[in-house]
Design goal:
heterodimer, A: 158 residues, alpha/beta, two-stranded parallel sheet, 17% strand, B: 43 helices, 70 strands, globular
């Protein structure tokens, strides 16, 4: 149980470009799932940075866009499963806002696929690891994001 | 009732005991704590959570069980008034209600929960793997473990039974299971450490031990014992040949130091040991490890005693002995050779030389004489001197024909030496049979293989000589007579059987004795030994001890060592002035109880026993080369695999060696604790039915037959397969799954239980749907009798399952057959048309029922309460949570099968009942933490302190912690950074406290584990240091860095740096927060004057709270007015009268009859409502809480001619007729179920109607046995205990016929009823005097208006919607508003009472407080920016924001802190504290470091 397990996606992102991902996670499900991945020693790529929010519904468009401006290559918001939201409906509003932020990204020429909404339960530690892999693979296809400072640290592996 | 302080001088105790840490017990504990009572929460396992923690999802909402439960667990852990006592049972309960004394037996955890930080290093080190019962044995866990990853308490626990059999039987107490487990994992050096802990001569014992461990080995119950000695031999050889590298050596040394092995401080005491044999050496080792200076005096020129000169080199090479002795000398033991007692020194002389104690361990080196004529001849030799000379390098001459007299190891050794020295015909002469020979069996076999002949049952009479030379030995045959004092049969000569054995050399080896001449009479002796105390080995002179053969008589090597060990303990005690026998080990029992196969875990592998390899016999006799050889590594590991871990924990103490917190406590003992309490809640839960009792289903014989609980673990994303549904037999994905319902339930045979387990139908519906979701294309088939979907939302859930393609078959298979090749499972069943069908499945799930726990009888006896016929705790009809003993309540499945919401409601109800009875003692036993006044930091610039946690090795093993600290020091506003081994340990917290004071910190950042579990711990330190607790921020560098990127230290470190930078950036912007307060109005508004309303109102009033009871009709009683009695025989009218009287006479209950609530405002603690009477008069009342108990209506049927035909009536009308006097007899009754519900318009089940029909059917049958009663049903839903009455009805002749929606019954006006019987496939017709319709329970139309006034939600079925279907069944999402009774959903009278008690109890947790404190991390409105656009008002899931004076207002006590409004507010007027825009943007910015810290090593690919 405590053996290290590798997420299958990890191999897929070996290479030059390592995308930097910011994950806004709700306290009750997604963040707890990340903790469970830890407690279960499920390894996943180290290129994700988790920001804890009380509810995925707290993630506002400005904050999501700020992450891109600061240099994120990808962002995702992770909340509870439908009907599972600790705050009843926060995850529904989160989905709506992520859609809105995707539109805003498209307007400024950033691929909306760089942003995603995921839903998972607190028991889905393995799924959390999987999501990091999925997002990393997707962003590797897209390459570095130029929304932030184009002169910044984009060259070469980080 | 309960004594009050005034009456008896000693009022009730404000503390309670809750027995059982499942969801019901947790709910009761949290409620009682909130109501002002100290709670002792007893749990029999090592962690809270019960069965709910094992579930994947929960029906009917598919909520993740762990998601919903985990916050409750964290709440219990963080509640300072709940003391959780794990691994504990209630054993006695004395006293009377209000003042009880509970005796609680606490089984040891062997891990100090106060010190354990839950890091898990110990489990990594533990070599013992066991089946993981939490995962239903689908995977393995360690002997030291945590029940599940999210367990509360998070402390680890060691599963440790008695010591393993091998260890118990070893005279030395060595621990074969421990080192075998480590060998299994190829951790050889650690294994040797474990061995050496108890055995200072490991390599010697690996060769010469008589291994009683193997004789006791439990593996023999399956095939043959483990070759313990051979594995040990491999181990010592391996370690000698492969010394540990510097890194491993350092790690081992550090681990040794941590565990305190061999690191005693020098005591300055000196002990002289006379004799360097196994006893002397072991004693020296033991003394040296205790810090004493030991000096050994040895008479011979070499050390080792009998090991050196009594055991030939081909069994024990001198170099091996030397190595073991050298290791002992390295501990500081000095050996002086050629120093013989009596010749070179005396005991008294030793004392004079300054030795503080003396140990005599001179052994038994003198051979016994035969005492036969001719023995004095030169060619008759003494075996001991013969061996001694050989060992000394001489080559004693032997003849061709050698006879060795004796049967012990010495005799066998002598014979084998004689063979090697040229003896052609070597014979061992022994007077008993071979079986009685004391020599080690293998040695005898080896001797025989080397050509030694055995002549048994013969004794020498006379040495025959010729010309002064031996020519033979005159012998006599012996026979075995009666047993002698040693238990062996006594040999007796057979008259006339003399014979001559040719011999030219005779060697005697019939025993040995000590030469006591050297003692010079200084100490008392008895026969040929020193006289000693058997337990302490103390001699007659104080300070002098004796050990080994000289004290015990000739013994084995291990026996001598054990004696040396005992002497070392005694001497240590003597030197310290303690009683000599303190901490002396008990000698091994003469006989262990026999091994029983059923008590053992089955072998991991069927590998046969591997024997030690040996030199070929013909090579051996050519010289003195070692006979036994080392096993191959792979063979040794495989042999170690054969160990069954019968002792569970192997006592290898690896955990102790790695635990940096020092939390392991091997000397934990069972402890009895007495606790003073006012009352008890029993919430012991249930046990799943043991499916092995239904042998025909093959559970445990067929790997792919599993129970519903196993499937839960397979489905669980955190389970052993991460939610993949695979077959246990081959790991293949399951495509065809079958469920068999009612396994162990609805079964009146003695193998099962007659009751219905209530939950299994829904659990199956859920599992089938989730399984289909997990595996596309999976087919699910359910074999069942009825589908019982009787709870709120259950019927639609079941229908969804059917719609999604779950196949329901009304057929119960009688057996399962397995294909032994594929492990596929075949089920034979009767199809819908009655024909035999056979179908194959990949996995069959037995839907096992609920039964009382194995401990329930003990618990009931201890608590002094009665049990019912099924073994559950018996409850009272008028109070479903009261037991037969006052002051002892019960809730959850401890009193019968039920689902989670009912368990939770009962938990609250039991808490409410106790809280009511103990009300005078409220807040007398709770502790309220006192903190110093908060420092005002508003004017100070941020001064951030950073604390980086090593978490033992958990973080620092991967993340470069030093780098984090130096990096933190360079961050802006950081004035202090330090690292701690465990920041959450008392030392770590003290360091934090110190730093806050000395460095004048006003922001604290902790980089450690998850804030979910540790925020409160660190916030408390801030509060103690006078800082506002919201000035804390955490970075989770364990769960998000070291634990998930173990192979990438560089990247993990970089990630940790960024997370830390983000936390520091956010911390700059943290500000102190004040919690809002709200004065509580100590009054309740109860809407509804029926059963639920009256119970709630009287419960609250009896605790001194004012109640406004609003009833829309002109009298109290509601629907219960129409019910005479329940199926259980409760007199409902008597109960009603009692409640009405209580309500009417209570001075605190203000009745508002013919009234409704027309307006409501305010929030929890302070509501204001307008109550309008039907005459238009209005009253305004203020109240702190609201309870909605507005009831429900009965549907008025329009079907089947109801209303037009006088023959067609409802159950309620029929019940009235049955009770009417005179009774009008009827001869034919047809009842039709599900009228007005389970249809398109009302797709729910009314829950109570099946029971009602059965009740009335039984009554008519009782009144008029000849009356024909037919009940037409869709499913008979007599759930739980009601099943008993269903069976009674069938036995009384009531006919049950199923109908389905496609063929509804037809009723003609003249009372002819036709229905299609699906079982017979044809239409049946009855003539009925009365047709009785079971009409639905429906919500009241006026509820919509009430819901709007109270701003609470409703379901589409017209009932009120609670906050959470599972865990908050009586709460509304809106704080301070509660729900009870049929307004929630249709329910039975006892259920309504439980819910009403629960709602009252929940309400009382608010009313008992004077001030509500809440807020902190809540939304606040900047009124200046607010445009009153109503966005927040519309958005808030809790309806908290409202517009006051042109701007939004958010009541901090009501705000739940989700931040939805803050994220959406178009004007940016709303801020969520702790997550403000400024804070979050700073945090995100911190994640992007400008400078890349230099990597110290290349990242791994």
């Amino acid at each position: 149980m405590s053996q290290t397990q590798k997420a299958p996606q990890e191999a897929a992102i070996a290479g030059d470009f390592v995308p930097k991902i910011v994950a806004f996670c709700c306290h009750y499900c997604a963040y707890t799932a990340a903790d469970l991945a830890g407690a279960s020693r499920i390894a996943y790529p180290p290129n994700v940075r988790i920001v804890r929010l009380p509810c995925s519904g707290k993630a506002d468009v400005a904050l999501i866009l700020k992450a891109f401006v600061d240099g994120a290559d990808g962002v995702y918001v992770a909340g509870c499963l439908d009907g599972d939201c600790h705050f009843i409906s926060g995850n529904i509003h989160a989905k709506r806002r992520v859609a809105e932020a995707k539109r805003r990204l498209a307007e400024v020429g950033v691929e909306p696929e760089r942003l995603e909404m995921f839903q998972l339960s607190a028991a889905m530690g393995a799924r959390f690891a999987e999501i990091v892999g999925e997002m990393s693979a997707r962003l590797r296809q897209l390459g570095p994001c130029m929304a932030g400072n184009p002169d910044s640290h984009k060259e070469g592996p980080r | 009732m309960i004594p009050t302080a005034n009456e008896s001088g000693a009022g009730p105790v404000g503390a309670v005991l809750v027995v059982g840490g499942g969801i019901a017990g947790i709910q009761a504990s949290l409620d009682l704590s909130a109501a002002g009572y100290k709670v002792y929460l007893l749990e029999k396992t090592s962690a809270l959570g019960g069965h709910m923690a094992m579930l994947d999802k929960t029906f009917p909402t598919n909520d993740c069980a762990m998601c919903t439960m985990s916050p409750r667990l964290v709440a219990v852990a963080g509640d300072r008034n709940i003391e959780t006592i794990t691994q504990a049972d209630l054993v006695r309960l004395q006293g009377a209600a209000g003042r009880l004394t509970a005796t609680v037996r606490v089984r040891p955890r062997f891990v100090d929960p106060q010190k354990c930080t839950g890091c898990g290093d110990c489990a990594q080190a533990c070599p013992v793997e066991l089946d993981n019962e939490f995962n239903q044995n689908l995977d393995r866990r360690k002997a030291i473990h945590r029940r599940y990853p999210q367990a509360v308490p998070s402390s680890f626990v060691i599963e440790r039974s008695d010591r393993p059999r091998c260890m118990r039987t070893c005279p030395l107490g060595t621990n074969p299971q421990g080192y075998l487990a480590l060998v299994r994992q190829r951790r050889f050096h650690e294994a040797l450490r474990t061995l050496r802990d108890s055995n200072p001569l490991p390599a010697v014992c690996a060769r010469v031990c008589h291994h009683p461990c193997e004789n006791a080995c439990a593996r023999a119950a399956f095939d043959a014992p483990v070759s313990v000695r051979a594995v040990k031999r491999f181990l010592t050889d391996y370690c000698a040949a492969h010394p540990p590298g510097p890194e491993l050596a350092a790690r081992l040394a550090e681990a040794d130091k941590r565990a305190g092995h061999g690191h005693a401080k020098p005591t300055g005491k000196r002990v002289a040991i006379v004799g360097s044999g196994p006893a002397g050496l072991t004693a020296a080792d033991g003394l040296a490890r205790r810090g004493h200076q030991a000096v050994i005096f040895e008479a011979l020129p070499v050390a080792g005693g009998m090991l050196r000169v009594g055991i030939p080199d081909f069994r024990l090479p001198p170099s091996v002995l030397d190595a073991d002795i050298d290791a002992i000398c390295r501990l500081g033991v000095e050996i002086r050779c050629n120093r013989r007692l009596g010749r070179d020194f005396t005991l008294e002389g030793l004392r004079r030389q300054g030795f503080d104690a003396v140990l005599v361990a001179i052994g038994a080196h003198r051979g016994r004489r035969l005492g036969i004529p001719g023995e004095e001849t030169r060619q008759v030799r003494d075996g001991l001197s013969f061996l001694r000379n050989t060992a000394g390098g001489e080559t004693p001459r032997v003849g061709q024909r050698v006879v060795v007299v004796g049967g012990g190891n010495a005799a066998v050794d002598v014979a084998r030496v004689a063979r090697r020295l040229g003896g052609k015909l070597v014979t061992i002469l022994y007077r008993r049979s071979e079986a009685e020979m004391p020599a080690i069996r293998e040695e005898v076999d080896q001797a025989r293989a080397e050509g030694v002949r055995l002549e048994v049952l013969a004794a020498p009479l006379r040495v025959v000589t010729q010309d002064g030379l031996v020519v033979g030995l005159q012998c006599v045959r012996m026979a075995l007579g009666d047993p002698d004092e040693s238990g062996r049969r006594r040999p007796v000569p057979v008259p006339g059987s003399e014979f001559l054995l040719d011999a030219d050399t005779v060697i005697t080896a019939i025993g040995q004795e000590s030469d006591l001449g050297g003692l010079g009479g200084e100490i008392a002796t008895a026969r040929d030994r020193c006289a000693v105390d058997e337990r302490t080995l103390a001699c007659s002179t104080p300070g002098v001890f004796a050990a080994g053969d000289v004290a015990t008589g000739p013994d084995t090597v291990t026996g001598a060592m054990a004696s040396g060990r005992r002497a070392a303990v005694s001497i240590d005690n003597y030197l310290a002035g303690r009683p000599l026998d303190e901490s002396q080990p008990d000698p091994p029992p003469a006989k262990l109880p026999p091994v029983r196969r059923q008590d053992l875990r089955p072998p991991r592998a069927a590998t046969p026993r591997q024997e030690e390899p040996q030199l070929p016999a013909d090579w051996r006799v050519a010289g003195f080369q070692e006979v036994a050889l080392s096993m191959e590594e792979a063979v040794a590991v495989a042999e170690a695999e054969r160990c069954l871990d019968c002792g569970v924990c192997s006592d290898c103490r690896q955990c102790e060696r790695v635990c940096q917190a020092g939390a392991i406590r091997f000397d934990d003992r069972v402890e009895d604790r007495e606790i003073e309490i006012g009352g008890v809640v029993l919430a012991d839960g249930y046990a799943p039915y043991d499916a092995r009792r239904r042998g025909e289903f093959g559970y445990t014989r067929y790997p792919n037959v599993v129970t519903s609980l196993t499937l839960e673990r397979l489905l669980s994303a955190s389970g052993p397969t991460f939610g993949r549904i695979v077959r246990p037999s081959d790991g293949k994905e399951v495509r065809r799954i079958a469920f068999i319902q009612c396994v162990g339930s609805r079964d009146s045979s003695d193998r099962g239980h007659p009751y219905c387990s209530s939950i299994c139908c829904m659990q199956t519906a859920k599992a089938a749907m989730i399984a289909m979701e997990h595996t596309k294309g999976l087919s699910a088939t359910v074999f069942m009798i009825d589908v019982r979907a009787h709870g709120k939302g259950y019927e639609t859930y079941y229908q969804r399952a059917e719609r999604l393609g779950v196949r329901y078959l009304r057929s119960m298979p009688s057996a399962i057959r397995q294909d032994f090749k594929t492990h596929d499972l075949q089920i034979e069943y009767a199809g819908p048309d009655g024909t035999k069908q056979v179908e194959t499945f990949d996995l069959v799930v037995l839907s096992v029922g609920v039964e009382c726990t194995a401990q329930s009888a003990q618990l009931a006896a201890a608590a002094g309460v009665e049990r019912d016929e099924y073994g559950f705790i018996r409850t009272q009809p008028e109070n479903p949570v009261a037991t037969s003993r006052e002051g002892v309540l019960v809730c959850g499945t401890a009193c019968g099968p039920k689902d989670i919401p009912d368990c939770v409601a009962e938990g609250s109800a039991a808490a409410a009942s106790l809280a009511r009875d103990l009300a005078p003692a409220r807040f007398t036993r709770v502790t309220v933490p006192e903190y110093p006044a908060e420092r005002d930091v508003s004017a100070e610039p941020p001064r951030v302190g950073v604390f980086v946690c090593h978490c033992g090795n958990n973080i620092s093993g991967v993340v470069n912690v030093e780098e984090l600290v130096s990096f933190a020091k360079g961050l802006p506003r950081v004035v202090h950074a330090e690292r701690n081994l465990y920041t959450c340990s008392p030392e770590g917290l003290a360091a934090m406290r110190r730093a806050i004071d000395t460095q004048k910190l006003n922001r604290v950042v902790v980089a450690s584990c998850t804030p979910r579990t540790h925020t409160a711990v660190f916030q408390d330190v801030l509060a103690q240091a006078g800082l506002n607790k919201y000035l804390l921020e955490m970075a989770n560098i364990r769960d998000q860095c070291s634990w998930v990127h173990p192979d990438r230290p560089v990247e993990a470190t970089r990630k940790a740096l960024e997370l830390l930078a983000a936390a520091v950036a956010k911390a700059q912007h943290l500000r102190p927060l004040r919690e809002g307060t709200q004065a509580v109005v100590h009054a309740a508004l109860v809407v509804g004057g029926g059963l639920a309303g009256m119970v709630a109102a009287t419960t609250l009033a009896s605790q001194g709270f004012e109640v406004h009871l609003v009833e829309q009709t002109d009298s109290l009683g509601g629907q219960m007015r129409h019910i005479r009695r329940t199926l259980d025989g409760l007199d409902v009218q008597a109960l009603r009268e009692h409640l009405v009287r209580q309500t009417e006479t209570s001075p605190l209950i203000i009745q508002h009859l013919r009234s409704t609530v027309t307006r409501n405002r305010g929030s929890v603690g302070n509501f204001e409502s307008e109550i309008t009477a039907d005459d238009g008069s209005r009253a305004t009342v203020r109240h702190g809480v609201t309870i909605v108990a507005a009831g429900a209506n009965m549907y008025t049927p329009t079907e089947y001619g109801h209303g037009t035909s006088s023959r067609v009536i409802t159950q309620r009308e029929f019940e009235r007729r049955l009770g009417a006097f005179p009774f009008v007899p009827v001869d034919g009754v047809v009842m039709i179920q599900c009228v007005g519900c389970r249809n398109a318009e009302r797709p729910y089940c009314s829950r109570v109607c099946c029971a009602e029909a059965v009740k009335n059917a039984l009554e008519i049958k009782a009144k008029r046995p000849g009356c024909r009663v037919v009940i037409l049903y869709k499913d008979v839903r007599t759930f739980g205990r009601l099943e008993k009455y269903y069976r009674q009805a069938r036995e009384a002749g009531v006919v049950f016929i199923r109908y389905d929606d496609a063929h509804p019954p037809q009723v003609s006006p003249d009372g002819v009823v036709r229905a299609m019987d699906p079982a017979l496939g044809r239409e049946l017709t009855w003539r009925a005097d009365v047709v009785v319709l079971s009409a639905a329970t429906v919500g009241r139309p006026e509820h919509r208006a009430l819901a709007e006034v109270l701003r609470v939600p409703m379901t589409s079925d017209g009932f009120f919607l609670e906050a959470h279907a599972k865990l908050r069944p009586v709460d509304f999402a809106c704080e301070g508003v509660f729900l009870a009774g049929t307004a929630h959903s249709p329910k039975l009278i006892p259920e309504t009472i439980a819910q009403a008690l629960a709602a009252a109890g929940r309400a009382a947790t608010i009313l008992c407080q004077d001030i509500l404190r809440a807020g902190g991390a809540v939304s606040v409105v900047n009124r200046d920016r607010c445009a009153a656009c109503l966005t927040c008002v519309r958005l808030c899931p809790y309806g908290v924001p409202r517009i006051e004076k042109g701007a939004a207002a958010i009541e901090p006590t009501a705000c739940q802190g989700c931040g939805l409004c803050a994220a959406e507010c178009p004007a940016g007027a709303i801020t969520l504290e702790c997550f403000t825009d400024q804070q979050m943007q700073a945090a995100v910015g911190g994640l992007f470091l400008e400078t890349v810290p230099q990597a110290e090593e290349a990242p791994e690919a």
